[in-house]
Amino acid sequence: MHVAPAGGTAVQDHVALAEIELCGELIIAASAAEDRLSLESIDEVLRVGEEGDAR
User: Fold this and answer.
1) Distance of alpha carbon 48 from alpha carbon 46, whole angstroms
2) Is 28:9 a contact under the CB 8 Å cutoff?
3) In angstroms, rounded to a whole number, what is the distance separating the alpha carbons of residues 50 and 40?
4) How far is CA 42 from CA 5, 14, 20, 29, in A?
5) Integer angstrom CA distances of residue 17 from 14, 23, 31, 38, 45
């Protein structure tokens, strides 16, 4: 078994972190909705089609 060393050597995967954040936003939106999210609502939460989004 390989264990990462303790300390400041953590590797950050920015793409994975952005995906996790978007999943969290979807979960929050879904839990606040009274019914299933529409495709348009999902696109809005994920900011699909927005220009200049740096994510």
Assistant:
1) 5
2) no
3) 13
4) 39, 22, 15, 8
5) 5, 10, 21, 25, 16
pLDDT of the chain, 55 residues: tens digit per residue: 666 666 665 667 889 999 999 999 999 999 999 999 999 999 999 989 876 555 4
User: In this structure, are residues 41 and 29 in contact, taking their beta carbons and an 8 Å threshold?
Assistant: yes
DSSP 8-class letter at 38: P
Query: What tokens appear for 40 in the block?
Result: 């348009």
Inter-residue contact 36 to 29 (CB < 8 Å): no
pTM of the model: 0.63
